[in-house]
Amino acid sequence: MPAKIKTCAPLFWSTDLGIDYGAPTLPLRALLPVVGEESSAFFERQDRIQVGETLQLIWCPPVADLNGWNEQPSEIALSHLLRVRISGPAPEPPTPRNALYQGKLRYRFRVLSCQPLPAALRAQPLEQHAWHLPLIESGQDCCLTWEAIGECHRAEVQGLIYLSAYRRHETYMELFIEEADEQLFGLFSVHLGPGGNDYEFGRRLLEGAELQAIRRALEIALPLKDSQPAYLSP
Known about the structure:
The protein is mainly beta. The protein is built from five helices and 16 strands. The longest helix is centred in the C-terminal third of the chain and has 13 residues, at 208-220. It starts with 6 loop residues before the first strand and ends with a strand.
């Protein structure tokens, strides 16, 4: 069985593309990395990027890139899944935002493929053991992280359900779900916390405690809406 490819979401995508990010509208086509060409992004040290390795990267438009899908859920439909090969380190761009990049690592990579994220999620084959919802220990007991959530929100984008939730200790979670024949299938699980960030792909039928936890989250989740007006053009 081939090794599973690692998935990362860069901290920031490079902005030195000659694009006026202060313009009232931005061309999506000019922002999106091009297959066959080189691009770059900033990563956390804990991502442990290696020169020569092949990765899956989540690309988001500018607002979601900086603030998250929960701030601009419409940009889920415009996000893409890239497969890239790391070429090497890249210098920081000479921009006024350099303070944001201090302590971050910038890498160049060649884009091997680029697919809209919702389509990539829906196209996954059933792989029941691809991943599982994270567990936490409390004393001598264990429970699912999604069983002990605080603030929770949801959005529906192109037939998919997006859930986001916070827990204590700076833990943040996201889950993409598809509902079919009264069953829930998990497609993409994100867990961000002090211990590291995990991005897990694979179509799984949610069952048992996982199903109960996610149905409960869906019941209490508040609807998301964009925090900023539309600004992207084709």
